[in-house]
Specification:
About 70% of the residues lie in helices and about 0% in strands. By secondary structure, the chain is mainly α. The radius of gyration is 24 Å and the shape is extended.
């Protein structure tokens, strides 16, 4: 069996449980996914050694070590910094005052508003309740008298139409 086929099989077999393990450790789905990828990259270094007696244990050992490293890094460099904590030369420059950018943003906003207004009535109601009123899918379903699955389909339909404007 080639090493790429072997690695693919190991990846497909363990990626979901590894991500869940890392999610419990770091508390962020995106960080967990990145650490899971890094785990497999590091595991590739062990392919030609005796370390592959128990692949699952090796993956968990690497993932656990990466999670610990992540937490150590967070202690040294917290991710969350407010704009008020930055020194004046560290504050990012904004191009919000660029007239061309303002005009472009207004045009996009007008197109998005038009698309929202043109949505079918049920789709429009579900979208407004979710995005503007902040209701959950379950709350929208009970308010509109439809299933939660139907709400999800309506929201997907709305988002697909809106994405066309942004494409």
């Amino acid at each position: 069996m080639s090493s790429s086929v072997f690695l693919t099989q190991v990846y497909l077999k363990h990626i979901f449980e590894l991500r869940a393990f890392l999610l419990r450790r770091v508390g962020c789905r995106e960080i967990a996914a990145e650490l899971a990828q890094e785990t497999f990259l590091r595991m590739m270094n062990y392919q030609h050694t005796e370390a592959l007696h128990n692949i699952r244990a090796l993956l968990y050992q690497i993932a656990g070590n990466l999670a610990v490293d992540y937490h150590r890094m967070q202690v040294r460099q917290p991710v969350h910094t407010t704009i008020h904590e930055l020194s004046p030369h560290d504050i990012p420059v904004s191009d919000a005052s660029d007239p061309a950018r303002i005009v472009f943003a207004r045009q996009i906003l007008e197109q998005l508003c038009h698309v929202i207004e043109e949505l079918p009535p049920q789709c429009h109601r579900a979208f407004v309740l979710h995005k503007f009123d902040g209701l959950s899918h379950a709350d929208i379903a009970s308010q509109l008298g439809i299933t939660r699955n139907a709400v999800e389909k309506l929201l997907i339909r709305a988002l697909v139409r809106l994405r066309r404007v942004l494409a």
